[in-house]
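Local shape tokens:
==================
===
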Amino acid sequence: MNIPSLPYDVARAIVETSARDDNVFAMSLVSKAFREIADPILYHTVVLDNYDHSELFAQSIRSRSARDPTFFSRYVKVLFIGGIDLPSEADILDLNIIVLACRSIHTFSFWRPAPDDDNISILAQAGQSPYTRLSIASPLWILIPPRLTHLNMWQDPGAWLPKDNWRKMFAACPALTHLMLDAMTWPQFPEGITRFGKFVLTMAPDTLEVLVVELLSRDVPVNAVKTDLERMDDDRLVVISRNSSFVDQVPNMVYCREAVHATFRGEGRGGMDVWNVAGQEVDRRRARRRAKDKSG
């Protein structure tokens, strides 16, 4: 097959189809023409789970910037930085190089919990990108940019965000439409999820369409959760779990396999999009409510 003779749209379709089968890297080695199409697809989503990954990616940025200084700014759209230890100033420098090079991301996940100077510096640098979807630890809520539409917070937001801070956070995010509290446990809701959700939604901006709470299934009193969620009267509150057998026991809970993995570690990586799942559930509830009102 003579790749250069193919129309660009056809060649791109071939590479994109291969990308779904994880063969895009091999395709990029076929020819220069294929590589020019494959590289933006390969770099669309960057997942840095450990320091080895971040070090190699920083090296790639340094190498490629010499011949194409805006490559990563043009093509990296989803950036996930996991729980990487930062044992030296060189490691911190690498992460700063990465977030400065990836200036056009629309989704940013920064899964480092401590609100120390290094993390604050890296998050502040990343804030120069136009991302509208963010996943961070709750202690870093003060660095949330106002343009956000989708926000995921983890590490017990209830402990880090007393009532006044919830108000401040929502005031700082006037465009927020989707909020998720990630990997919560039942003891984190001493007054129940329904009451907590009502508390949050009362202070949320009118733009908020859905509040997602991911409840971990370990050591959960199923009957207590079931009773609590039966009192749920706001269609925007969606409680999800990645445990299907747990969901089967609680009618008002929603199953979402690998929810966070799909949403914040990059698109097309084998999971379900939690925002789509939650939005569809809200639509179903509202449709049922309208049908009930119409028949009643």
